[in-house]
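FORM 7B: Structural annotation worksheet

SECTION A. Query
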Amino acid sequence: MEFGPSCASGMILDGPVLATLATGLGLVMLIIWVLRRESFPGRALFVGTIAGMAWWLMGASLEMAVPTLGCKLAAAVLTWPAIALVPVTWMLFHLRLCLGLGPWRRPVTLIIVASTVVPVLLMVLSNPWHGLFYGPLTRVDIVDGRPSGVFDHGPLFYLTLGVLSLYMLASLGIAGIAAFSTARAARATRPLMLLLLTVSAVPFLTNLGYSLFGVTLFGFDPTPYTFALALVMLAWSMYGNRSFDLAAIARDVLFFNTSDPVLVSNSSGEMIGLNPAADRIFHDLNAKAAPDILSQIEPDITWVLGSGLPKKRKNVRLGNRVFDLRTLPIWHPLAARHAAMGAVIVMTDVTDVRAHADRLEATQARLHEQLATVNRLRVAAEQAALLDPLTMLGNRRSLQQRFKALEGKPLLLLVMDIDHFKTINDRFGHQAGDRVLCHFARIVEETLPREISLFRTGGEEFELLCPDFDEAQIVKLLKKITAKLAQDPDLRSSDRSTVTFSAGIARRPDDGITLIALERAADARLYQAKRNGRARSVGRDGSQQVLSPMAIGNVIRLHSDTYANNAAGMSESRTERDA
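SECTION B. Predicted structure
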């Protein structure tokens, strides 16, 4: 057994040799292709098997090319590590891929591989000493028209063949379990497992034919050729059927496990696929409802197939459920422009979401209504806080706001007080007094111009804010009010009364700029008017104007019956000034 320059000089590079070499190089390219694709369980072991096959074929091409027996024996020795490597890595690949064992740590895998490859290599290398691997009848002969090695197989060869066959039988058993056990292989991966079983069986049977019956190809062992072809087919199938494409597997997982119904339509608009969620929807609804379902979906499918663009629509009702509908085109892979060859319909169940949204809208509407009611009550309360409940005139708080609004403007402040009002209450009762107050407020309010504001600030006390008026104008208005009270004395046809009032006048800014200062000045002049005989007004210069001389000393006649439109409650007088 030798390999020297004589082997290289006499090589026969004919068609079978070049074909074998090209196949080995093709397997190297297959390794590169597999390593650049998505990973799958046992990929490293699969690549190891392909590498062993490439090594085997290149060794076979060398053995076929060299002319002498010594050179052929040397080439065979170089090839035996690959021959031993392939069954071991192939069996380990089956364990990892089909049964999910591992992934083992690299040292364990290396030990298993080395425990087979190293003994085989040692037996072949030591053959010249014992002749138990290749016997003395090994020779070069013409087989299939070309010089080939005819090996005299010894007992160590058959021992090696038996051990390697055990690995191949283990691979066949594992592939068979994966292909025919429903617990191991899902329906989608069963064709791949059957192919894996075939890929293991064909090289095994080919090797038995060569070893036991001398079947050859190009005068050589046909096992590496069939194994190489099987590996190429297996690699292509593994990626072609997407069994180990994780992205594709993830899409399938979503399709079969999503709670959203998904339907698939062909280019004619016919439903050709349903996921389990969609199947449950159609199953739960009676058969008569199916045409109604399709009639709701059909316009969207037609639009998508015609335009090649996705479409989204809401509120498709199926039975007692509501769905949002998304229709997505399946684009033709060879079309220059977006042309749909089908459509995917995704139905998102929004029944509960819509119910929650409706409840939320109802709650919001109720809250808005309650807020509006609260605002109305607040406005009413604010308005009521500014009104005297008996006369419905502005109260002291309203007076303060109006005074603040007129800040900086010259004005007159009048404090008016009904004469002898305490006598009215004492003789005829508070209900009669309330009638007098309401009647007085109505007469005054009807007489005053719009620019003057009237307020009730105490029991029988009223105040006027008169911007841009002088005392002469105000005195004329006071006399006019007195005349109206004299002309319209009756609260009812049977009640006759003579009601008069006194007033004190203050001016801003002459008597002060604050409300308190003006009220203090007007109060002092009001007391002066009462001391001087009532039914008169006193101005800021101390001058007084008699408003109703005939009222002094008159007997007040008032009926004590309840006033029909009396407002509830009566405000207590801020101060009782009548003696």
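SECTION C. Observations
Residues 351-385 form the longest helix (35 residues). The longest strand covers residues 321-331.

SECTION D. Sign-off
Analyst initials: ____
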